[in-house]
Give the backbone structure.
Amino acid sequence: PPTLPPTAPPTLPPTLPPTAPPTAPPTAPPTAPPTMPPTATPTPTLPPIRPICLPPVITLFQAPATAELGEHVPFDIGISSTCFSHWTVNFGDGSTSLVGLQPSTTTEHAFFDCGIQRVELVAEDTLGQTMTAFVDVDVMCPPTPTPTPGQIETKCCIDDEVGWTLECVVLPAQIPDGATVRSAYLVTEQSDYVMFWIRPASYRGFTVKYQTVTTISPEGWFDPHPPMPEFSMSATQSTLEPFSVEGSNDIQVSEIAAHTPFITEVNQNKLHNRETVITLKTSRLTSARNIRASKLDPLTSAMCVTVMLEL
């Protein structure tokens, strides 16, 4: 039988070496996000607290119901206010208004007009809010003396800050026709009031003085007018803060003799129908020791002058 050729065994495909599984690249550890420092919460700035300014209240304003002409009348003042500024007193007689910086105090005033005087007090705070009060003083005048036969009088008055000028006028019509003035004199009634505002310089003590001086012109018509009594205060101070000092002189009466030139002038002016003018003027003498600063607020002087002519 025929012989079959040998058959080659089947050839298997080559076997690839085992492949290692792919290796993932190394992964970096996660990085924490940056932490911001905590932000401080700003504290709100509040505006300064202002005191509540209620309108001022006048708790006290009183004076005696009656007073004599020229007498120093005390006025008690009390003011309640959280924002007090000052008070103003108008005495209603044409004199200068008085201003004070202390809410509780006593001030004085002399009246030279008869009858009921209405006095006004106005309290004011730093916002301009005000309150007003009134008090009445009945000024009693003594009976007017009746001039003796052959006597003529004329009167003039003033109440103002020192430095004032007062003119007293003798009218020719006051002298009877055909009459001759043979002698004359003046009667003056004067009082002073002063308030010092003082800042002491040390604790050693201080001294303040004032005095009102009055001159009469034309020169040579009358004797010199005597000066008012001197007001003086000395004290040892426990604080260097400013404070006030008040002083007053009660009414002083002086009789001033006239000289021949005045009598001659009055008679000549009567013949020529002219006025005769007598001028009085005040000035002040002040001194201070161991005081850093001071002021007068104000210095007032009141005067009434009676010109007496004897025929």
About this structure: The chain has a mean pLDDT of 80. The radius of gyration is 48 Å. The chain has one helix and 16 strands.
